Amino acid sequence: MIGKLLKPVRSKIVLATKVGNQWKNDGSGWDWNPTKDYILKAVDESLRRLQTDYIDLYQLHGGTIEDPIDETIEAFEQLIRQGKIRHYGISSIRPNVIRAYVEKSRIISVMLQYSILDRRPEETILNLLQSNGVGIMVRGALAQGLLAGKPPKEYLGHPASVVQSAADNLKVQATASATTPSALATQYVLSHPAVSSVVTGIRTMEQLQEAIAPRPEPDVDWLGQLKTSAPANLYQEHR
Q1: pLDDT for 79-91, tens place per residue?
Q2: Is residue 171 part of a domain?
Q3: Domain total for the chain?
């Protein structure tokens, strides 16, 4: 369905997809498979389903430091030579995995989780990727909707009371900036120069309009206010 929809405008879009999760034969879930053989087979299936002959950005869907990283990189490089993909990247929150790919590969992007309530990338990863010319696509900018009006709950070690306080602070700042909490939460992560784009989930027309609405320019005052909304957290594993 997506392939059919995109076909008339294929040359006007950047098409990105992922590889690494291999569905089990019985459909009960998937296994992690970052091997070269699987990547080379999976891309052909993606091209068939998407009804295109190339993918602009092919991303590894996760990964651990125990993976055959050199083999995975070989697969992506081969696909570039074959013209089946134009660029490749990874989707990961693990600092040790991100560092390995920055050192060994030609990734152009990393998709990672980042928000006012999840500032772990601010410790080292944002600056690392920026200094190496690797773009960042942020997911989770609204922290599972907790920054967009959902009832507060514990999140990444932050108690519900802190989550509520951060949401309240965001709402105050958004009102002062004549915008919405969702737009301001998105602008917070976009304000870092390393961030290229934000991947947002759209379920309603209202959410779509909010996502594409003009956002306020970064302001030192409200950025500082948002940073004090919740304590900065750090990666405890995969360092």
Answers
A1: 999 999 999 999 9
A2: no
A3: 1
